[in-house]
């Protein structure tokens, strides 16, 4: 029924196969003799001073969320910019209102201090 | 498809346009003032509350003065008719009452974010968009806007783990239910390629003339089931009610009034718009769904509420009970069903305004900087001696919830039962009557705790402020004296339900 998807099926199976082969081969053909010294944590030759884990800084998450919002804004701008030649005045003013609403959001975010890294 | 936004659409859209412009201006005002070192970083939350009241009165003026239309706008995504004017007026009045309830609790609870009322205005905007949707896709957009605002409002108190846990639960489960809604819409669109309500109603009217209900393709009925499941989820109707007690207990009491009052009413209006007009021919299917939900809601709402010791969880189960009654009114497919539904909604609004006015005013006063909201039902104990008027108000409101005449709640239940009998749902009526008899037990138990229990330590409460007293007296007086002159409410319901 869906003959044109057979190529996709072979593609999926081959990639799956390749990934598993690469993963399993390294596990089979490597020499593993675990020693207490070999698998301990490494910190420039000394014994580790402190735990290697730190608390996750929430600033990274904030940057990711802000990037998402403004990246989506830009991705809405791209198709508009391609076809603006065929649109009348309405096309221009619609994107003006869209950018205006997002600018207000940007002002809010700026003055709340979300853009300061400290 | 060419989307043309006519200039005549603006006349209908003016209230929503005014709301968006107000949000922009208030946002810029709030952000530039509250982060300004020269003014000393002022706390603008109460200021915003009064500004919201002013905004709503202006919008009331705008809405009452819109000319009588019957049209769709933003090509058939939204519609407008005269009854929508009065529904929006009711929402704005309830919104103003909500601001009166909450305005003094903000300083008591130290909720110093000005965005709280901004989000409230935005939620009213999204409610206006929801009740005027005319397309399956705009249901999703406007409903998701409301839900996003409520997810943020559920976690407005970021320092309380209780609140963030409740908000996270609400977010995850709400998003899941929106996924179900989208899946149902996709199934319906995939089957017949129609999303507009007018096209849907024409399609089903022509189909049901020739075919029977069994010949309708399964995708269509499955889409219907998924959409109604998503709506039941948002309404916290059983068996999809699991999130509501936890969420209602965790979030702030000021915000729970918003959740309980506004979500139920909007989604019931949406339900009527979708299932009552466009998918009306499939009533065999959705009547059974609403009947099952009504049965479970009544059953679970009463029986689980027996074991509750915290007041907000108790209110959550009580609202599940209310939703069960409204489902009975919805599933009786006659015109009186719509009438009784709006009547029940109005009394439900009054009941909830009253109960939250009394609950929000009971803040236990430890010292001048530490007061907390009472949480347990057993903390109501000696209220009749310390606050006799609040105790009497709670008595009236609990009588109304349990349906004791001559308080208005009795008449709502009476009319719901009569419409149900008219469409021959006899066993459901018998079941609902026995369930409400059982439910009166724990409402009367609270009254007994208020009036007849003794305790050694009497709690001191923060005095009730004027705006809350106004709302409490408004609701209690309307509930008690409804029986003497019901025209006040009945006329408005008549206007809403007959203009269509």
From TrEMBL, chain A:
It is found in: Membrane; Mitochondrion membrane. One of its GO terms (molecular function) is NADH dehydrogenase (ubiquinone) activity. Keywords: Electron transport, Membrane, Mitochondrion, NAD, Oxidoreductase, Respiratory chain, Translocase, Transmembrane, Transmembrane helix, Transport, Ubiquinone. It comes from the Eukaryota. Its EC number is 7.1.1.2. Belongs to the complex I subunit 3 family. This is NADH-ubiquinone oxidoreductase chain 3. It comes from Cyanidioschyzon merolae (strain NIES-3377 / 10D).
From TrEMBL, chain B:
It is found in: Membrane. GO terms for biological process: ATP synthesis coupled electron transport. One of its GO terms (cellular component) is membrane. The keyword Oxidoreductase applies. Keywords: Membrane, Mitochondrion, Oxidoreductase, Transmembrane, Transmembrane helix. It is an enzyme of class 1 (oxidoreductase). InterPro entries: NADH-Q_OxRdtase_suN/2, ND/Mrp_TM. Coiled coil: none annotated. It comes from the Eukaryota. The chain crosses the membrane at residues 17-36, 48-66, 86-106, 113-131, 137-156, 168-198, 220-240, 252-274, 286-307, 314-335, 341-362, 382-404, 424-444, 469-496. GO terms for molecular function: NADH dehydrogenase (ubiquinone) activity; oxidoreductase activity. Its EC number is 1.6.5.3. Residues 135-438 form the NADH:quinone oxidoreductase/Mrp antiporter transmembrane domain. Its main location: membrane. It is a multi-pass membrane protein. NCBIfam families: NDH_I_N. This is NADH-ubiquinone oxidoreductase chain 2. It comes from Cyanidioschyzon merolae (strain NIES-3377 / 10D) (Unicellular red alga). The gene is nad2.
